[in-house]
Please model this.
Amino acid sequence: MNLLVTGAAGFIGSHFVLRHVAKHPEDTIVVLDLLTYAADKSFLDPVADKMTFVEGDIADQTLVESLITNHAIDVIVNFAAESHVDNSISDATPFLHTNVIGTQALIEVVKAHPSVRFLHISTDEVYGDVGDNDPSCAVDAPLRPSSPYSASKAAAEMLVLAAIRTFAIDAAITRCTNNYGPHQANEKFIPTVIRNALAGEPVPVYGTGKNKRDWIYVGDHCDAIERILEVNWVTDQRRVWNIGIDHEYENLEVAKMILDILGKSHDLITFVEDRKGHDWRYAVDSSETRTLGWAPTVPFQEGLRETIAWYKQRYS
Model:
């Protein structure tokens, strides 16, 4: 395949490219990334000679069109997104530009090139939060986004689904739970805990720290994406795929695990004012994705240790 991978200098996208090159060295990969604050092109250095890197905006339809044509692209995998909830609360405008306008620009290109498949990477946050006793969200559960970030991702999904219905584009959507691992942007929860703990500084935890998340190691997420890319979405007729590990942890519990691994005192934990509209719990039903033969392989404690080791080297 010839793949255009957007946002691949970021966290999840960089892991996808690194793993895909290792598994499919015969494939051609073009990376399109705007290199915002959350990106680091050096993540892709190990495969720099096996891909083409282009700095640019997914909302630049002319640029995307040229990449599709010049590189005979078969598949677009769209990781490009503004994703930090706190930033979306401060200013939603960049989120609308990248997550909504950018996604529509990709759709327009795919409409003009019907043979190109389009996999849009979304988030479980589009479902909003669920109560402690509520069942996990199935792919047909209502979307109730709580933040400007998740609202922009839900809007992007609606555009993709509308294009599938109206223009018969060959597209699918993935909704994954919280990712963790090397390469994640510094402001995210787990990197913040690690960074502050290493420096002996207060570790901020929102509210009471009882909010629950289903943490998946980034490599497991990328493996699920690879399996979904193997599906013929038109004949299979499943257009939305949930990805999760079905094992939730409270934020406070995760902070304590990290401190224990680092040999730091729990006294570093400092409770801070809760985020506006903070979702209580996320949980998705990933049973359909597991029918593809996929299952997570990295236990949380093991993944945390690998993540911490990477950040210790990065912050040293």
